[in-house]
């Protein structure tokens, strides 16, 4: 995985947190919702990663006139043979970039999110399994809301993490311009999709103490019932807290992050580091929060302060060993 990151960073400058979250998604088999203004190398990153992993990459530009068949495929009548043949859509790829997902109507969004959950497509009664690994990275533009269809909360919940991509630092932007005006950079294939599948299995064998699982559950429950966690002042700002998918994603993401950091066990800090990305899109904020300019990240920061992390999560495990 270090070799994969090394090759990607030959092309992509900075964006370390973004790259780390992509690697977590690849290891845990989750999907990413990426929010950032245009020109921040979102497409370039995913395309480069597909080349390094020798996988297939497809990009779909979501528009208001897009149809579900444009994503998943459809049946086409062949006049020569007088038979119907199945044309598979662009979702059949290892890495799928759904650009500006909120520009397509709800029917198209639902078609993609169903594919994300089931990892298969049914066309005319015939089921087609998607290639493995299959990771969707959907982008949203935060600066233009005109002509968009906001993603319903139930659909947003299917994404493992929501990552906010910011502008690069001035010194990073200097390197970006230098690379853009210079010769094109070739990246080498450092792994295959089969190797990635084996790495995913190895990652899933990482040890997660039951105390950390309880910590993840406590964090999520604090967003549903803030008063019980001593955060009664936050209750007016939250309409609905995070779902059980948040608890699962917290543990899965923390385990993958520990693996990237070279450990076969997960610590509370791993879980704390992924918590904002896992929970920010799962909180439904109230009108009071909008009026008071309270964001989901503010709520998560307060929750992380109020809910104590386990001090010795691996103590019992070490005793047994």
From TrEMBL:
Residues 31-161 form the ATPase AAA-3 domain. It comes from Orrella daihaiensis. Residues 238-302 form the ChlI/MoxR AAA lid domain. Coiled coil: none annotated. CDD domains: AAA. InterPro entries: ATPase_AAA-3, CbbQ/NirQ/NorQ/GpvN, ChlI/MoxR_AAA_lid, P-loop_NTPase. Pfam families: AAA_3, AAA_lid_2. This is AAA family ATPase. PANTHER family: MAGNESIUM-CHELATASE SUBUNIT CHLD, MOXR FAMILY PROTEIN.
């Amino acid at each position: 995985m270090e070799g994969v990151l090394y090759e990607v960073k030959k092309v992509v400058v900075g964006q370390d947190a973004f790259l780390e979250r992509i690697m977590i998604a690849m290891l845990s088999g989750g999907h990413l919702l990426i929010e950032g203004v245009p020109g921040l190398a979102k497409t370039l990153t995913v395309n480069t990663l597909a080349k390094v992993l020798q996988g297939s990459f497809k990009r779909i530009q979501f528009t208001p006139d897009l149809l579900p068949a444009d994503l998943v495929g459809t049946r086409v009548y062949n006049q020569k043979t007088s038979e119907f043949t199945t044309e598979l859509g662009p979702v059949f790829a290892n890495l799928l970039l759904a650009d500006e997902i909120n520009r397509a109507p709800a029917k198209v969004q639902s078609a993609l999110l169903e594919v994300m959950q089931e990892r298969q497509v049914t066309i005319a009664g015939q089921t087609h399994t998607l290639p493995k690994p299959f990771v969707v990275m959907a982008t949203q533009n935060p600066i233009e809301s005109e002509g968009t269809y906001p993603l319903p909360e139930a659909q947003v919940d299917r994404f493992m993490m929501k990552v906010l991509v910011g502008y690069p630092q001035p010194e990073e932007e200097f390197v970006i311009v230098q690379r853009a005006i210079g010769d094109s950079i070739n990246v080498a294939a450092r792994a295959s999709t089969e190797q990635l599948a084996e790495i995913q299995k190895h990652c899933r064998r990482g040890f997660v103490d039951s105390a950390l699982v309880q910590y993840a559950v406590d964090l999520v429950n604090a967003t549903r019932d803030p008063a019980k966690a001593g955060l009664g002042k936050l209750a007016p700002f939250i309409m609905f807290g995070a779902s059980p998918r948040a608890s699962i994603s917290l543990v899965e993401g923390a385990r993958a992050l520990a693996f990237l950091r070279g450990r076969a066990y997960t610590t509370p800090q791993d879980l704390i580091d992924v918590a904002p990305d896992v929970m920010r899109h799962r909180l439904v904020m109230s009108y009071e929060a909008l009026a008071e300019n309270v964001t989901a990240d503010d709520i998560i920061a307060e929750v992380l302060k109020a809910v104590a992390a386990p001090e010795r999560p691996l103590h019992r495990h070490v005793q047994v060993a």
